Structures
1.
Amino acid sequence: MKGYVVAIFLSSIFLYYVLYCILWGTNGYWFPNEEMKSKNNVKNCFKKPAFASLLRFPQFYPFLCKADFVKVAATYGTNNFLLPYGVKTFESYFRSALSKLQSCDLFGEFDTVPCKRCVVVGNGGVLKNKTLGAKIDSYDVIIRMNNGPVLGHEEEVGKRTTFRLFYPESVFSDPSHYDPNTTAVLVVFKPQDLRWLMEILIGKKINTDGFWKKPALKLIYKQYQIRILDPYIIREAAFQLLRFPRVFPKDQKPKHPTTGIIALTLAFHICSEVHLAGFKYNFYTPDSPLHYYGNATMSLMKKNAYHNLTAEQLFLKNLIKKKMVINLTQN
């Protein structure tokens, strides 16, 4: 009888341990590490967003974490897709890069606001002379992308940046653009992007082969500021939001979402209200400014074979029409 009770007791302890690991998302350690504590402490908003119906997994955590990388990839099928939509065949690359990062936190530990108003700021020329800077800076979360500057354009686009999505060819290298309050989010499109990040982090000479233009040779952000976007977000943007085909005809180049649409998809997962600025493009006037900065014109967009900008503009128009998002640069 005594042995029977001991067996039940030990079985109970084992069951508790298994459930504990599952709930906390650990890799088998008795206590969850700090990374998992931060991930599980994210405050969920109980207010249903206007865009909730677009998402299959509204509470999906958008950044990769080294502690549960394998588990999350298997749970959401990311291990079944090649880049940029998954981690298949490049799991070791991701694990190596994640091992060098200091954090996968979404927000700071003192950020307790569950329902966040967010603005996704594109780089479109429509922002010129709009003086939306103060308005943009009033949001809880401000998401920007690539090398769209705030320095020298504060009146038009504001000063603050919460998240900046980038890839090696599009990130700042000039330290004058450094912001200690920005979280820099790497969007991985190809294996070279992970190799580049590893070389940056360990101080190795950058191999520039395999990039469509010369990547940044140094990163102005500190190690604690860097995150890696889960490829599931890119896959969701392509297949669920833009409805791109899984396989393109042989005579067509595969199309992928722009960083802007990927940033919007990120916002859908972390915000309760999403506004847009700088996403409108005028395809009918090729000499009009492409960006709110620089001298590039809309004529460059005709040469782009990697994205389907028409599909993206129609998607955004539909979102605005259904009042799922609000466009600050409508006119």
2.
Amino acid sequence: MSPATVSPIEEAVPGESVVCIGFFDGVHRGHRELIDCARRHGERLGLRPAVVTFDRHPLEIIRPGSQPPLLQPHAARLDTLADSGVDLVATVAFDDELRHLPPEAFVERTLAPLTPRQAVVGQDFCFGHKAAGDVATLRDLGEVRGFGVEAVTLLELDGVVVSSTEIRRRVAVGDVEGAAEMLGRPHALEGPVVRGDERGHELGFPTCNLEVDPRVAVPALGIYAGVAHLPDQRAVDAAISVGLNPTFDGHQQRVEAHLLDVDEDLYGARVSLDFWARLRSEARFDSVEALVAQMRDDVARVRRVLGRARSA
């Protein structure tokens, strides 16, 4: 399956479509229910399935400073949407003009350019200035403009609605396994490898220090089992630390990964880290020897945890 075309909505190739619209932070399992519904309508109607999304979280414009941490950077979110089985991902600039549009004008700006014959949204979908429009409003506008509307019931897992908000909460407390259950994949952080204190190499556990986008959700302080994805497509098991290095009186949060059985210069390379499981909280040790002993134990646990996960 080839990735979808990604373009600003103004540059999208004209043609009738089945469209689902949303910010889709994390492109989690609930979002994929909407996208799969659009694909089924597309097959039934012989039309291209398309996604309309925004270039930033709406709250960044509506209430600056109140926007939540993102589950994915913008580019990664577009890549995930492009690989979701649709033909087109159209981006809309969420600006001050868009936030003030009434529902009808909002539809004109965000859906009409793709000539929808069917729109797919979540049952809690709201749009337009001060969220004045809802699913019923969209259906009324669709009757006038010639498109149907399907509102998809929110997906639940164990009685909890799958949502970006709930996934962020789980990431924030370190429940990366619970987050992965809702995402359908591990939560990930990506960024260039930058120089740190190089203390890990001196201790026998060299690490990759990631410069992480400050807008992205970072798991709670602690040690995690995970997988590092390198620029040459290798996937390497890793012991990941999100912490302040309290044993050395550190105060700046860092994300660093010790790659198991790999020791090479990755400075400047972009690396992505998948968080599979939380092993323990961050701790301060009374001696370097105690820290090194714990790091050996952490590495052994990473091997066991990832081995069990892969054999499950």
3.
Amino acid sequence: MTTRRSPTVRRRRLGLELRRLREAAGITIDKVAERLECSSSKISRIETGHTGASPRDVRDMLVVYGVAGAAAEELVQVAREARQKGWWHLYGTVLTGAYVGLEAAASWICAYEAQVVPGLLQVAEYARTMICRARPDISEGEVERRVHVRMARQSLVTQDDPLRLWVVLDEAVFHRMVGGPTVMRRQLDHLAMVAELPNVTLQVLPFAAGAHAGMDGSFAILGYEDPADPDVVFAENAAGGLFLEKDEELRRYHFIFDHLRANALPPDRSVAFLVARAKEL
């Protein structure tokens, strides 16, 4: 498995390591800010990965923490890599969150979707309808840019060294007519085709399952090949989404996903469900 690189993930790794080193040195954020002659909020945002740090900033912070030599040079190099631009930065006007950057470097994703087909598996017509209904205020040109980004993301599933994707879809997804019967048939046919890929596992959670562990909403767990990059959960909400990284949060969502896939139809029966549902439309 090739380790994928993403400036977003490198920035996150850098922040986590800088926070670990600061805490190990017993130094407060305020004291670091004082030494670097900057605001405490800047140090905090660097540690949380919300903003990048220049190689100079990193060197200065490491001096404060008493870190030198090869360990320091490695982190300075991570800072350089974190300042590079991913392909998605060209679409900064339509992408405001960090999710695409985190997704780009993931080795595997386990996702549960309660209402819609996930972006990595949408056909263009389905995606276009979703975007137009969610954002009726934007121009046709911006809609097309958003569709283009969503289609570009899907190369992760089909490239030579593909992402491992395990998706559980609630049965409600297949009864919601997004774009009408023709679009839905095309979408269902696409899902049945993608489900045959060796790196994709797709399961349908039927209505017959009743109440289940994922009723709080859709989420995705992103995992990385390098141990230095811990898993992260993206939980959807009305404001767009929330990133969760604490150990207890990760354990909870892994637990939820295990229960969802245990209650869902097996992959072969899920594909049969998709084929049958397409014929009904």
4.
Amino acid sequence: MWILIRDAITYACMLILMSIGLTLTYITTKVPNFAHGEIAIIGLYTAFSVLHLLHLTPYAAIPIAFVLGAGAALALYKLVLKPLSARGATIDHLMIATLGYDMIIFAILNVYAETLRELYPRFTGKPLKTRGFMPFKAHDFTLAGQPGVFFTSLATVLICTLALHLLLTKTRFGIAMRATIENPDLASVFGVNTELVYTVSWILAGGLAGLAGVFLSFYFRGDTCLGFVLIVPVFTASIVGGFYSIYGAILGGAIAGLSEYLITYAISLAVGPWFLGYRITIPLIMLAITLLLAPEGLTGIEWSKVLRQLRAKLAGLSSRAVARLAGVVGR
């Protein structure tokens, strides 16, 4: 049971890192980035390259993956989204543009994987599988009998959460970012460099996706199309927590990651292991339920109002129950 919970926590940490970035760019530039999953795969292939070309631990790829992921996200914003916005593109146009950018990254990764597969044997005399390769569990370290990716992913989430909290609440840039999120036009009138806020947001989002990609290499079979699979649970995490809150992204990532992993395992025990191939249905169902019942996400719900309504209903039920009981006794 502990192994199941441990792996679920590890997966949830990866979703949290990705959902933070997705939410950060959405609340600043109001663009849902459908290329976010494929940006994470840049981090995965960075870890793959560091392992097989430099013969170093995949963890050595963390700073490189952050830079490459940040660069890919920044290029999307500066070269695609910003010029389109200047020409009057709507959110629908920008969203479709991120899908196109996703395809570009996918194509580049496929070209890289194929080139590496062709050239690697010429220099080493050994074949190299560049698609569908096994997770790097054999190259992970252990601590107290537990895989290193469990501790490193959890520590990364905690550090990033604390750093973002301090950034948003204790720095002038954080104040400027919050002002830009609330009202970019008014913030610019008061001298806030909104363009800098947007740029930093996309850099952080891409960098966090790159970090998540490194951790994914220990967990998933590596493939260029993995980003298409990941984008569903990442969007689910952001929407469940609340697409307008960084803290909601953290909460949603934890809920979506743990639920997807544990519910999939429970159903597979009941109906058979064939259901493991359909685990994507769990976040899809969670996404649909959230959009139907609480489209603002958990952090968008007025919980005090919900509690007051619940108390009122409970009080009404208890009053009716007492009245019925009194009527029975009176007879």
